[in-house]
Amino acid sequence: MANERTTHWSDILKRRLANSTRKDERNEDEKKAEETELFTKYYSEWKAGSNRDSSYKKIPRFYYRLPAEDEFLLQKLREESRAVFLQRKSRELLDNEELQNLWFLLDKHQVPPMSGEEAMISYEAYLKVGEKAGPKCKQFFTARVYGKLLHSDPYGRISIMQFFNYVMRKVWLHQTRIGLSLYDVAGQGYLRESDLENYILELIPTLPQLDGLEKSFYSFYVCTAVRKFFFFLDPLRTGKIKIQDILACSFLDDLLELRDEELSKESQESNWFSAPSALRVYGQYLNLDKDHNGMLSKEELSRYGTATLTAVFLDRVYQECLTYDGEMDYKTYLDFVLALENRKEPAALQYIFKLLDMENQGYLTVFSLNYFFRAIQEQMKIHGQEVISFQDVKDEIFDMVKPKDPYKITLQDLVNSCQGDTVSSILIDLNGFWTYENREVLVANDNEGNSSLDLDDP
Q1: Does domain 90-178 sit in CATH 3.90.550?
Q2: What are the backbone angles phi and psi of residue 165, rounded to the nearest 5°?
């Protein structure tokens, strides 16, 4: 239909122009003016009569400009609007009384027999509970949720406890997201370092396991805690982390585990956010700082751990990492510790790989491996140990990693191989290399606790 109309007005236009040419001899400007007038007229008529799709007029607005720094009123309005929105979302969540009522209803509608020690509920009873639980619970009582929790019960039931834990987890995630969003000053769904510092600082009084911390240590504790989030969740060092990423990782679980007043000593020691762990890391930093200037020189850092990191590797640390007049501050030291204590993690491997990749090529060559391993060989000579051939070590590394390119090892190759921690230990730490070389002996003597390194014993 549209094509017929287009042909119609174009034919009329041609005829009119032809007629006007025969009738008079006007100048070019007059002819162009009439042509433009006729085109506009007939095009407007065709457009008005067409049934073309005009849905583009209904596209909702998807971009809203953020207020500028000097637009104080707009900024205040935006902040207040966000606060009201978060309050409304908070009121939509189940409170403790409503959760207790939900548990009571689930328990009342359980369907026998029990599966081991777990009470079960059928789909019909599940829907009845959903009707009685109130509008706030409606989102949890769907066929999709039931299907997710349905496993191998012969009667097609789900565990009441599993379902209730699912609801509790969802409520906790929403509460935490709202809590974190209150510190999102930019309102863009991410937290800057200062935002996360404020969140953790205000969280400290609510964690019984941190009751013994002196207030003078709070700033160091906050720095220690925040650093773990940014080291692992901000690999590109943008200075901000998505709130979604914070919720998806296990770090918040570890941090909020400190609410448990009866947390075991073993759990505290393995939890980076616990008081003993934070004091351990900061205490190590103070012990390394022999001149007590609050910073670490390369010589001071060389005594880290078993004091067996090679000088070549430490040179690279001070070349690549942020330093002040050639010395390292506490924040940079925390990145260093997190990388060396978590060598299996991709973020830690990325940190170490950057130091090993001297020419910033994106891969390690045989030359790169030889350069770092020579420092291990020199340390072995100093301690009177028999020097291992680089050729043998090189072959073992390539066999472990199995890179796509037989002459180059990329970061992704290390991650995919799950041997990145072993490879990095072999190249940067004499103790790590010794442990790898004597792994069979160490496994045999593990029960006897005879796995310490004696560097003076060849």
Answers
A1: no
A2: -65, -35
